[in-house]
Amino acid sequence: MSAPHDSPADPNPAFTWGLSSNMSDIQKAMALLITSFSKYAGKEGDKNTLSKEELKELLQNEFGEMVCKSNDKEAIDRIFRDLDTNRSNSVDFSEFVKLVCCLTQMCHEYFTCKK
């Protein structure tokens, strides 16, 4: 994969890397994670982190009932608290990716155990 070019106008890594048609499935997944995070981060300030409200919107729109019911404030608070490991009162990309990894592992276990 070639290094990203500076393109602040378009945060989409597929565009920035210039590999959209040649990207492997894993590269596409990585680009999608970055793009999805960027779509919600920064609406309330820092474009590199998610506030609790931004995380709530991301969870509702991108994960739906898979993670929690949208009106379950306690569940959202608990997820935010668990993800915010550095106690910055925001969720950075590393912390977000940990959530995605855990959910992916759980889905993998669920589907491989069903066979």
From TrEMBL:
Domain EF-hand as annotated: residue spans: 71-106
UniProt keyword Metal-binding present:
yes
Superkingdom field: Eukaryota
Q: What InterPro entries has UniProt attached to this entry? A: EF-hand-dom_pair (IPR011992), EF_Hand_1_Ca_BS (IPR018247), EF_hand_dom (IPR002048), S-100_dom (IPR034325), S100_Ca-bd_sub (IPR013787)
Q: What keywords are assigned to this protein?
A: Calcium, Metal-binding
Q: Name one GO molecular function term.
A: calcium ion binding
Single GO cellular component annotation? cytoplasm
Q: What is this protein called?
A: Ictacalcin-like
